[in-house]
Amino acid sequence: MSAVATVISIVLAAVFLMAGVPKILRIAYFRERIRHWRLPLSLLPVIGAVELAGAGLLLVGAASTSRRSAAVGALIGATPPPVVHVACSAGTSSRYDATGRGRRLA
C-alpha cells in the first residue's frame, strides 16, 4: 500500500473511531438522532460497533499489503444510519411528510 493510501486509511479510521465511540456510549445527541430517524434505541450501539469494526479493518488494511482489506474497512464503516433506516422501514405502510416532523399523510 502506498504512503498516501496508508495515511488516508489512518485518517478514515480515526474518523470512524470518533463516530463509533459516542454511539456505543449512547451520548444524548445520538439518542435524539436515532429517535428522529424512528429507529429502535437498541440499534445505536450496533451502528457504533459497525463503525468501530470499519475503523479496525481500515487499520488492518493500513498495516497489511492487501488493498482489499482497506477497501472492505472503508465500505463497512461508511454505512450511515439513514441507510439502515431505509432498510428497516422498507416494509412499513405508513407514510410521513417530507419535513421529517412525523406528520402522517392520508
Low-confidence stretches: none
Mean pLDDT figure: 75
How does the major sheet shape up? none
The secondary structure category is mainly alpha
From the N-terminal CA to the C-terminal CA, the straight-line distance is: 55 Å
Strand content: under 5%
User: How many DSSP H or I helices?
Assistant: 5
Q: How much helix, percentage-wise, in residues? A: 55-70%
Number of domains: 1
Please state the overall shape, judged from the principal axes of the Cα atoms: elongated
Number of strands: 0
- C-alpha Rg (nearest Å): 17 Å
Give the ordered list of helices and strands.
HHHHH
Task: Give the topology.
Layout: H1 3-24, H2 28-36, H3 44-63, H4 67-77, H5 81-88
Helix pairs in contact: 1-3, 3-4
Can you characterise this structure?
This protein is mainly α and 106 residues long. The chain is 66% helix and 0% strand. The chain has helices spanning 3-24, 28-36, 44-63, 67-77, 81-88. It has one domain.
Describe the structure in brief:
This protein has helices at 3-24, 28-36, 44-63, 67-77, 81-88.
Can you tag this structure with a few keywords?
106 residues, mainly alpha, elongated, 66% helix
